[in-house]
Design goal:
heterodimer; A: 319 residues; alpha/beta; Rossmann fold; eight-stranded mixed sheet; four-stranded antiparallel sheet; 12 strands; 22% strand; B: 325 residues; 2 domains
Amino acid sequence: MSEPLLQVEGLHKHFREGPNTIHAVNGVSFELYPGESVGLVGESGCGKTTTARCILGLERPTRGRILFRGEDLGALTPAQLRARRRHFQMVFQDPHESLNPRFTVRRMLREPLMLHGLFRAEEQLTQTVDRVNLERSLLHRFQHQLSGGQKQRVGVARAIMTSPQLVVLDEPTSSLDMSLRIHVLALLRRLQHESNMTYLFISHDLSTVRHLCDRVLVMYLGQVVEMGRTEEVFDAPRHVYTQALLSAIPIPDPNVHRNRILLEGETPSLRELKPGCGLQDRCPFVAEECRLPVPDYDLGGGHLVACRLAKEAVTDERN
Amino acid sequence: MDQPLLQVKELSLSFPRQTGRQRILDRVSLEVRAHEVVGLVGESGSGKTLTSLAIIRLLPRSAQIDGGTVWFDGQDLLSLSEGRVRGMRGAQIAMIFQSPRASLNPLMRAGDQVARALKQHRGLGRKEAYRQAIELLQHVGISDAEARARAYPHQLSGGMAQRVLVAMMLACRPRLLIADEPTTGLDVTIQAQIFELIKEVQTETGATLLLITHDLGVVSEMCQRVAIMYAGQIMEVASVQALFSEPRHPYTEMLLGSVMRVDRPVDLEGTQPLTPSQTTYQTAGCRFATRCPYVMPACWITPPSATQVGPDHSVNCYRYSEPAA
């Protein structure tokens, strides 16, 4: 396999909140390879956005390293980091909040090029506008004159202006209607294939992840509990949390009946973390060993699971 | 057959615009029978929330009803006095809104709010009402109910707040419950819990439920019948089985085609956005005409009326009925 584009090693991010510490991310490690699309899924507060913000250099990790093309981002000076920024971009969740209301679309798209000294000609703007299926006449509009779908496409256009290698997409479709959502996903996939970009796609919506991503990382309480190829994780989830998450999604087909794993209660507080599995107080299959730190069980093919129930799968395969 | 509990007949509604009035709801008809769970489905701007607000008479002031009736239990809700309607809200018809925390009084503790509903609707004394409020909170799955009852809404999570609202609804024992996207903004595992709870409560009390949603997965799990709305018009009404196995309206077909399933990926190519690009509809007829692949001349002139295509299955489309001459 080729060199990883991005390596996240033992990432921790804690925030101070008065006398408390919020343990947002607790030891996350993974790699992204060029041209792949990886989904980072989990429910609110699981640390997926914080992880992304650390990767983009918007937050300083409390512990751990982030290497982009082998270079430790934490060791760079601010000026060096700024120079690298054209290679990793982000599309934000709410296009309404993330587009400057006082800029025209033209200025929003020109800005990243100007910042990195890449602006050569007006064609750069019109070409990108064409690529994201927007009309060129929209270049003169302000964000309030655009529809939700148009705004999100401007957000995508702005992110790909500098021809980045890595694009982090934070819930880019969650504010869109379903028929529009599928359209934006198809667009994202086409753009990725055209320019061989790497996507880190953050979402709580597992159906969009299934449609866009090659691999998926499932986060819970600041830790990755399961990762693997998308079909493998979706068709045969091994971690109880992944199983519960998947079984909670209603299927639009009255002929499909599934056993639902209902988790009790709600996500525990990130202020005081217990040792062991984060799911121990909600899991219907909890055992004594779940109170101790859980190792990652390797099921082969990059499928890693931090759940005692996956242990049997590993021994089964070896026999 | 029994008279339906709720019958919306040809309801039309308009809002003032700079250039005259603009019709938003166009002859919406909908029936909900007693003890039934009906889904009202549409994308944003389809008028599903306005329809429910019209039923419970909580429309914004600028809205004007241009015609139609809303029969509930033998009376026309639209012609009742404000005082009579207030007496029915909560007691007869209750509504759960999209943002649970915004629906609770921010200055009142959760337990007091439930107790207040009990005092008003069941005429209980203060102490007894509070005692029963705690019981109801336990009943809707709030652990440590006594402590939670002392919490203010901002101290509750979204899922908890929604449970408190369900408890208030239980306190009132309404005959019709309207739930407008009750799980928007909640995580899927919490959404699953809330829907299980609503289902439980519905079977237990025999309440009738009108569930407003854009999620066809939720419809498939919760509802018996479903009405599909587009741009303020009803397109198709069917049993859930029939809707998914034999959708008839072109819009329904395209909507089902754009659903991303987590258990079975679909092809992303070839789909197109369906939502209307603007709300100044250029047609007096079917509002889907601008996007419809089967559009015919009649579609632009008058909207088609409902045509029966099967038991419990009607479609508003000229493909299934002769245009009136």
